[in-house]
Every structure is written in structure tokens, then in C-alpha cells.
Amino acid sequence: MYYYWKTKGIWPDEFYNKPLGTRVLLAAFYEKELEEKVEILKNENIMAVKIV
């Protein structure tokens, strides 16, 4: 819940009052965003190693 509030401005009650399908979709988007951030960090680490 903290993630949704901090990054998207979605209050916990807003999230839980949404239909189940919407909550599942938001959770899937959350997972996808995390995967993308991890991939970016991996690529940055690879580039840093190549530079050094």
C-alpha cells in the first residue's frame, strides 16, 4: 500500500474500494514496474563494470 500512496497518490481505502479485477490489474502493473526497475539497475551495474 505504501508504494501506491507514495508513487501514485492512491489512498489505501481507494485501492480496497476498487473492484477485485481492478486491484488485480494494479498489482500486475506494480510487478511489471518493479521488473523494469530491476532490469534498469542491472544494466546500470553492467555499464559501471565495463567503464572501470
Record keyword descriptors for this entry.
single chain, 52 residues, 3 helices
Question: Can you offer a commentary on this structure?
Answer:
The chain has 52 residues and is mainly α. It has one domain. Helices cover 85% and strands 0% of the residues. It has 3 helices and no strands. It has helices at 2-8, 12-16, 20-51. The chain is elongated, with a radius of gyration of 16 Å. The relative contact order is 0.09. The mean pLDDT is 87.
H/E element sequence? HHH
Count of DSSP-assigned helices = 3
Assembly state of the chains shown: single chain
The total count of strands amounts to 0
Distance between the termini: 39 Å
Average pLDDT taken over every residue: 87
- Level of helix content? over 70%
Low-confidence stretches: none
- Overall radius of gyration: 16 Å
> What is the domain tally?
1
Global morphology = elongated
> Mind describing the biggest β-sheet?
none
Question: What structural class do helix, strand and pairing data support?
Answer: mainly alpha
Strand content: under 5%
Short description:
By secondary structure, the chain is an all-alpha fold. Helix content is 85%, strand content 0%.
SSE order and pairing:
Elements: H1 2-8, H2 12-16, H3 20-51
